């Protein structure tokens, strides 16, 4: 069976005044039906660029994206085809809704654009989806600014679901919400996945949230995946020094503890990345081989990791 | 619909908006009633020449060098001023929005090409360009309107482009692309309605500006010879400035009041459409 | 007990606009010298307004309508802007969420730090320069002398926040207010900045008021926690006591709403709090939390609970949770 999403050697390089910026530098990943792939990494690691490529608003410089086995082409027909299979939920629930349109129109728009059924069918469908995501008729008559942040995010989700897509790309979809509302939206996303068999590419900087929702987790650093595997295996059996540093940096909510060794410095400039392993400049285990040779993703136990010394290093 | 009504209501409650609206209503009233009150038209030599205001109750503003009724001329002149002002503004807004929106949305070489064109128009002194155009293709109401609009659109284009550049990065625009909406529909249905506020505010200034340019052209003798505009009266009264200054004074006052009212409306619109700006000061 | 007043004491504070519903009502808490207090709550709870009121920087037509703010025992809520200006910097200082907008984009960071030193402390240019490098060293910025000549946009988010912190502590204030100082930063950088704040606080004996929505940050950094909801303090006490045994249903709800563990290993549905935070004009009568509370009863509607002592901390609830009832209420 075809995976819902498959990318092969996906690259997005931008030419800048200072050199080539490799935002996404060779990403191979796949998401199965009904699966959530969590994607974590620091800002600028390329996770949002990857998301934009997958939904078709950025064009890859190299490599391919296949959604349900079909590689998208360019042009309007491809745009409409892609709209039926993959949709996106954005971080800022107010920026994602046109402030001048009423909520019912916002939810109905994908149906209008794709000429699904007739007018009344579209209206019924929009109402049905709105109810599925926990909105009522009352909300449909409002303007976006009259709704709370959580309700606006529900509107975004309803709009994204209108065309019955197979894959939802959630780019920091709950990050701007308050904790109590965040839980509501996360529960909704989990329920929708069960009911509709949706797949998610779930991007977040909040590792606790990613850990909770994901079946598998991928860790990105400077445009490449450094570790990927089943969620709890990556979380507990983290092998890459970067994954270790990332998880060690999360302030624990359950108990006060010493953070120990912190990752020093910042992510290097993506225009002139270090030779060999991109992480070596911040890695306390770095050796000569790390500067000479770039580690490729390789299978270690249940997951894959891009580190020469994954088996030998320990905390 | 309800929103534009609401804007109008708040405009009428704004002090300078109220004064501006009253004045412009007066000018509109003059334009509409001109042929009812003066069925003979502005060119009729109705009385003795150079009659001072107040000396004959039939001619409250007096007469010009040919004995034409100045009040009638002012009434008919308001038609020309308003028509040229509004149509020139509309043409330049349509052009400016088209150029600005396309340049801002598509970016890249489209943007470069369109903005260089805009620069080209802005480097030539506006009024001189208008004079040149009217001088070359001849003076009629439509050429004058065209000559005014062609120099005014770059301002709108820049305004709209800046707003579109900002809005096209918004997630709701990205979301429209993701649902498969066409670029033209995204520009005109989704983005443009969100950047109309500054355009509307600028419109009143554009209209005022167009009225002044039209009057200036007519004053220089480049007006449409077949219509009586305020500029035409000014031009005619120029030689009589010492002996019969009222001939120039009354159209000048009409011009000043009209332009003032439009600027007042512009200021008020700015406050009404950008309530946050006012709060901060 | 000693007679020395706490560094910052906020008593019965109410903030509002004209006759509108108050945004913050009857807030009460203190920050001692050398102590970190975490002020926690969701957006719209009034935590940032409380901080701005303390700094005398309330925006627009918001005013302190009742209550007192005391710094070192002296009331500061009624001071003129001119007098407050003399306090900001040498006595109290603030850092914000977004370091980029807190810095002037067209001035080098060195010039911005020197400016604070010359205007507030009257240092000479040379002395200010030396002190600025010292401050950057204090905030653990590598190669501080070279950094002095850089503009904010040439630095990373973490470095910019260090510069903001350097400016905030330039005049050696006794109170530092940090409003979501790490929210815009990545977790690895957040960990660095939190450690830095903690170190500076110990070295300089600062009173630190840390405003955040992140319970993990509070747990790691704060000695005491003040939980706000809809303009009121609902719970207050020692951080570990409150977070281990929350007595207010809202605090318990916040903790339970955070995801723990993985769904693939059987972590159940998240315990969300139904509804959303009410706007100031829509807050319910009686207890502000009652319409979202699972254990609310008739008395909660009729009478606003007082902040009362309960098992080592203070809670504003008619039916405070005990450690035992919590265990059955919130599955771990």
TrEMBL record, chain A:
Domain of life, per lineage: Bacteria
Keywords: ATP-binding, Nucleotide-binding, Transport
Domain ABC transporter span(s) in chain numbering: 5-247
Transmembrane segment boundaries: none
SMART domains: AAA
A single cellular component GO annotation: plasma membrane
Any GO MF annotation of the entry: ATP binding
Gene3D superfamilies: P-loop containing nucleotide triphosphate hydrolases (3.40.50.300)
Intracellular or extracellular location(s): Cell inner membrane
Pfam families (UniProt xref): ABC_tran, oligo_HPY
Membrane topology: Peripheral membrane protein
Protein's UniProt name: Peptide/nickel transport system ATP-binding protein
Source species taxonomy: Bacteria, Pseudomonadati, Pseudomonadota, Alphaproteobacteria, Rhodobacterales
UniProtKB/TrEMBL annotation, chain B:
TM region(s), chain numbering: 18-38, 80-107, 127-156, 191-223, 243-266
GO biological process, one term: protein transport
Compartments where found: Cell membrane
InterPro entries: BP-dependent_transpt_permease (IPR050366), MetI-like (IPR000515), MetI-like_sf (IPR035906)
Superkingdom of the organism of origin: Bacteria
Membrane topology: Multi-pass membrane protein
SUPFAM superfamilies: MetI-like
A single GO cellular-component term on record: plasma membrane
Record keywords: Cell membrane, Membrane, Peptide transport, Protein transport, Transmembrane, Transmembrane helix, Transport
Domain (ABC transmembrane type-1): residue spans on this chain: 78-266
Principal location class: membrane
Homology family: Belongs to the binding-protein-dependent transport system permease family.
Designated name of the protein: Peptide/nickel transport system permease protein
UniProtKB/TrEMBL annotation, chain C:
UniProt subcellular location: Cell inner membrane
Top-level lineage group: Bacteria
Signal peptide (UniProt feature, chain positions): none
Record's bilayer topology term: Peripheral membrane protein
GO BP field: peptide transport; transmembrane transport
Xref: InterPro entries: AAA+_ATPase (IPR003593), ABC_Ni/Peptide_Import (IPR050388), ABC_transporter-like_ATP-bd (IPR003439), ABC_transporter-like_CS (IPR017871), Oligopep_ABC_C (IPR013563), P-loop_NTPase (IPR027417)
Homology family: Belongs to the ABC transporter superfamily.
Protein name: Dipeptide transport system ATP-binding protein
């Amino acid at each position: 069976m075809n995976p819902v999403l498959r990318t092969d050697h996906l690259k997005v390089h931008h030419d800048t005044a200072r050199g080539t910026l490799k935002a996404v530098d060779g990403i191979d990943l796949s998401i199965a039906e009904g699966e959530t792939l969590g994607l974590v990494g620091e800002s600028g690691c390329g996770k949002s660029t990857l998301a934009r490529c997958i939904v078709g608003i950025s064009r890859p410089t190299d490599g391919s994206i296949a959604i349900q086995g079909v590689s998208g082409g360019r042009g309007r027909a491809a745009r409409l085809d892609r709209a039926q299979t993959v949709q996106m939920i954005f971080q800022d629930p107010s920026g994602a809704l046109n402030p001048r349109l009423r909520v019912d129109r916002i939810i109905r728009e994908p149906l209008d654009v794709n000429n699904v059924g007739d007018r009344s069918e579209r209206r019924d469908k929009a109402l049905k989806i709105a109810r599925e995501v926990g909105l009522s008729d009352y909300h449909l008559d409002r303007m976006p600014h009259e709704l709370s942040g959580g309700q606006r995010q529900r509107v975004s989700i309803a709009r994204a679901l209108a065309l019955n897509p197979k894959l939802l790309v959630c780019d920091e979809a709950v990050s701007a919400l308050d904790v109590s509302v965040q839980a509501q939206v996360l529960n909704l996303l989990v329920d929708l996945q069960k009911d509709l068999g949706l797949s998610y590419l779930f991007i977040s900087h909040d590792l606790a949230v990613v850990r909770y929702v994901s079946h598998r987790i991928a860790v990105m650093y400077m445009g490449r995946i450094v570790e990927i595997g089943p969620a709890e295996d990556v979380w507990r059996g983290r092998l890459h020094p970067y994954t270790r540093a990332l998880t060690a940096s999360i302030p624990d909510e359950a108990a006060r503890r010493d953070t120990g060794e912190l990752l020093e410095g910042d992510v290097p400039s993506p225009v002139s990345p270090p030779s060999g392993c991109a992480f070596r400049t911040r890695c306390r285990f770095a050796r000569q081989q790390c500067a000479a040779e770039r580690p490729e993703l390789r299978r270690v136990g249940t997951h894959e990791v891009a580190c020469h010394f994954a088996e030998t290093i320990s905390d | 619909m309800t929103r534009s009504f609401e804007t109008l209501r708040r405009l009428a409650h704004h002090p300078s908006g109220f004064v501006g609206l009253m004045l412009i209503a007066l000018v509109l009233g003059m334009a509409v009633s001109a042929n009812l009150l003066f069925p003979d038209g502005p060119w009729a030599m109705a009385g003795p020449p150079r009659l001072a205001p107040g000396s004959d109750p039939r001619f409250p503003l007096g007469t010009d060098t040919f004995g034409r009724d100045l009040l009638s001329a002012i009434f008919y002149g308001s038609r020309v001023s308003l028509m040229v002002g509004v149509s020139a503004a509309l043409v330049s807004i349509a052009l400016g929005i088209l150029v600005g929106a396309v340049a801002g949305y598509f970016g890249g070489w489209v943007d470069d090409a369109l903005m260089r064109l805009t620069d080209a128009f802005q480097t030539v002194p506006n009024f001189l360009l208008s004079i040149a155009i009217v001088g070359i293709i001849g003076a009629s109401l439509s050429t004058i309107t065209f000559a005014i609009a062609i120099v005014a659109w770059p301002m709108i284009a820049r305004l709209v482009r800046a707003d579109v550049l900002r809005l096209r990065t918004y997630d709701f625009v990205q979301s429209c692309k993701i649902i498969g909406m066409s670029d033209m529909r995204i520009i005109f249905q989704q983005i443009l309605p969100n950047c109309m506020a500054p355009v509307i505010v600028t419109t009143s200034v554009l209209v005022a500006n167009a009225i002044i340019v039209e009057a200036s052209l007519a004053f220089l003798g480049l007006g449409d010879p077949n219509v009586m505009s305020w500029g035409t009266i000014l031009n005619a009264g120029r030689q009589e400035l010492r002996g019969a200054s009222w001939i120039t004074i009354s159209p000048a006052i009409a011009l000043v009041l009209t332009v003032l009212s439009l600027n007042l409306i512009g200021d008020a619109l700015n406050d009404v459409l950008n309530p946050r700006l006012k709060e901060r000061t | 007990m000693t007679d020395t007043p706490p560094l910052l004491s906020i008593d019965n504070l109410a903030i509002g606009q004209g006759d509108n519903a108050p945004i913050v009502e009857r807030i009460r808490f203190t920050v001692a010298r050398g102590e970190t207090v975490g002020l926690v709550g969701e957006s719209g709870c009034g935590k940032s307004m409380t901080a701005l009121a303390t700094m005398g920087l309330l925006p627009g037509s918001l005013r302190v309508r009742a209550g007192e703010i005391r710094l070192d025992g002296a009331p500061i809520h009624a001071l003129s802007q001119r007098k407050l200006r003399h306090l900001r910097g040498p006595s109290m200082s603030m850092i914000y969420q977004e370091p980029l907008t807190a810095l002037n984009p067209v001035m080098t960071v060195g010039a911005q730090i020197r400016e604070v030193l010359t205007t507030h402390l009257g240092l000479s240019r040379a002395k200010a320069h030396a002190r600025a490098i010292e401050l950057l060293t204090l905030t653990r910025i590598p190669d501080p002398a070279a950094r002095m000549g850089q503009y904010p946009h040439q630095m990373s988010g973490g470095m910019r926040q260090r510069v903001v912190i350097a400016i905030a502590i330039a005049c050696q204030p006794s109170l530092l207010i940090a409003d979501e100082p790490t929210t815009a930063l990545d977790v690895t950088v957040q960990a660095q900045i939190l450690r830095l704040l903690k170190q500076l606080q110990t070295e300089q004996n600062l009173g630190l008021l840390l405003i955040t929505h992140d319970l993990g940050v509070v747990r790691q950094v704060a000695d005491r926690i003040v939980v706000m909801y809809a303009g009121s303090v609902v719970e207050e006490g020692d951080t570990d006591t409150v977070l281990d045994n929350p007595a207010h249903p809202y605090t318990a709800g916040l903790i339970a709403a955070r995801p723990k563990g993985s769904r693939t290993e059987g972590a159940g549905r998240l315990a969300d709090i139904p509804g959303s935070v009410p706007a100031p004009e829509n807050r319910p009568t009686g207890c502000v939390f009652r319409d979202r509370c699972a254990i609310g009863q008739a008395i909660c509607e009729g009478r606003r609970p007082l902040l009362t002592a309960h098992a080592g901390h203070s809670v504003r609830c008619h039916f405070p949770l005990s450690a035992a009832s919590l265990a059955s209420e919130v599955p771990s």
